Task: inverse folding
């Protein structure tokens, strides 16, 4: 099945931090793929901006090399790749000085959409916003994209919001959480709100519990300095897991539009119960046979930063009171899995007798690998051996269901096109981000006050033993990671 492509309007996208890792590995390849598909029009341009002294040609060569690495050969015709590269320009510019700003002003066209993508450290957001305003580069058709992390606590997020809103209207600010751009996450909205099947069961009466897992096999890699200050709670829970939790738990918005969605997500965050320390497990990966411990990778031998968090969350509203949400995320775990599993309660009575083998219905929404969904249901085991029950998966892998030639776009492809269209549904509003920090801040503060240290877990394992105990206490188990 080939997706229908509607081209967006012509635009100038200024990519601040264009020589950086995120720009070269994610943003520029995503734009190239949208160009190859005909969604980024020929009249659109991408202007890279950074302090490095590069000619436009040297920048194009750098991007061509990055595209080689990011987009497998044969994915797009070479002529399309060249066509994209021809649309690139470069301005040498300092966010903190006046170098390059007049050149940028001269390079921009007046009659097209402008997108300013801040793919730089958040410490530069304020400088960029100030200068964009001072150089009168902000038009009514301007959007600004802010990368994560959006602050490191509520106070800093509020300061960032204030800096941006001094120069831009909220409708112009696109705070990225790339999890929201994943196809399956949007499919979650379709499954919940475009079918009659699930919504009547989507509450504490019928849902026993929900597990949200984002497990990685990789360690912190070269991000030691950043990670040492962040940890899994700030890096993953406050944003990605919180967004997934909101989409699962929110009330149906009256329309699939930005503010209706974001109002409902905000209500979920505000309804979260405060988390007691006993409901949170922190872990840190130790050394393996051929991998270093996190402490060695950060360069802080004494680090008390966590690479793993598991926690139990309650939502104090009529829909969810009594249904726990278990969240876990970690690095160097047994498998790379991102999924949401909604486990339903048992039927009230078994007509098959007390000894019938029984498994709960589970709806699993897989974000990676192999995006798709499966619903575990009980059926009769085939054969003449009497009425024996068996649980099977009604599997809907998107690649299988929708055809092999289906290209599931990377989250950045969709999100950047939404920026150009001015559609904010899959982006976070300022108050949402602040509310999420307001919930995570006390948990982090309690760790700091107690001077607690994360439990060390073996690389390649399922995480610390205490995480299993967290669910065991409630008579439940984590889903297997493998
Ligand atoms: P990076 O590799 O360090 O790149 C930073 C970019 O900013 C470079 O292009 C650098 O170029 C430019 N820059 C630095 N100071 C500047 C200044 N004063 N004026 C203009 N440009 C300046 O960082 P990154 O990994 O790409 O990350 C960028 C942002 O995205 C960060 O906020 C990060 O947290 C976030 N993020 C990154 C990832 C990822 O996978 N990398 C994922 C999610 C979010 P010059 O040195 O040439 O100026």
Result:
């Amino acid at each position: 099945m080939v997706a229908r492509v509607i081209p967006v309007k012509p635009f100038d996208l200024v990519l601040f931090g264009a020589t950086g890792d995120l720009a070269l590995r994610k943003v520029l390849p995503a734009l190239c793929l949208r160009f190859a598909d005909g969604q980024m029009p020929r009249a659109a341009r991408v202007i890279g901006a950074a302090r490095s002294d590069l000619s436009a040609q040297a920048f194009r060569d750098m991007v061509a090399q990055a595209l080689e690495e990011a987009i497998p050969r044969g994915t797009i015709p070479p002529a399309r790749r060249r066509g994209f590269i021809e649309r690139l320009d470069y301005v040498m510019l300092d966010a903190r000085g006046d170098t390059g700003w007049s050149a940028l002003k001269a390079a921009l066209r007046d009659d097209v959409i402008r997108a300013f993508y801040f793919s730089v450290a958040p410490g530069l957001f304020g400088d960029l916003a100030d200068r964009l305003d001072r150089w009168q580069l902000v038009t009514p058709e301007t959007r600004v994209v802010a990368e994560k992390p959006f602050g490191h606590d509520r106070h800093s997020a509020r300061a960032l919001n204030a800096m941006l809103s001094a120069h831009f209207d909220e409708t112009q600010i696109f705070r990225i959480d790339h999890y929201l751009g994943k196809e399956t996450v949007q499919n979650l909205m379709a499954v919940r709100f475009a079918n009659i099947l699930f919504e009547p069961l989507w509450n504490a009466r019928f849902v026993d519990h929900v597990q949200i897992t984002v497990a990685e096999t990789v360690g912190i890699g070269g991000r030691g300095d950043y990670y040492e200050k962040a940890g899994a709670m700030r890096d993953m829970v406050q944003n990605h897991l919180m967004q997934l939790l909101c989409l699962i738990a929110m009330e149906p918005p009256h329309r699939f539009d930005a503010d209706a969605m974001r109002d409902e997500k905000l209500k979920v965050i505000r309804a979260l119960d405060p988390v007691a320390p006993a409901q949170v497990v922190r872990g840190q990966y130790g050394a393996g046979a051929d991998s270093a411990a996190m402490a060695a990778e950060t360069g802080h031998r004494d680090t008390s930063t966590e690479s793993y968090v598991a926690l139990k969350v309650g939502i104090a509203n009529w829909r969810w009171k009594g249904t726990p949400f278990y969240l876990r995320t970690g690095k160097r775990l047994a498998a790379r899995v991102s999924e949401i599993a909604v486990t339903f309660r048992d039927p009230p009575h078994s007509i098959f007798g007390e000894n019938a083998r029984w498994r709960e219905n589970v709806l699993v929404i897989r974000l990676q690998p192999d995006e798709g969904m499966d619903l575990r249901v009980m059926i009769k085991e085939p054969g003449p051996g009497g009425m024996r029950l068996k649980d099977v998966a009604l599997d809907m892998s998107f690649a299988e269901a929708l055809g092999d030639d289906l290209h599931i776009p990377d989250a950045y492809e969709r999100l950047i096109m939404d920026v150009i269209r001015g559609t904010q549904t899959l982006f976070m509003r300022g108050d949402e981000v602040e509310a999420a920090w307001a919930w995570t801040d006390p948990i982090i503060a309690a760790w700091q006050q107690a001077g607690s240290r994360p439990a060390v877990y073996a690389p390649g394992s399922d995480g610390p033993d205490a995480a299993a105990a967290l669910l065991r206490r409630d008579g439940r188990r984590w889903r297997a990671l493998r």
Summary: The longest strand covers residues 207-215. Residues 16-23, 50-52, 93-96, 119-122, 124, 147-149 surround NAP (CB under 6 Å). Residues 180-409+429-472 form a domain with the Dihydrodipicolinate Reductase; domain 2 fold (CATH 3.30.360.10). The chain is about 35% helix and 20% strand.
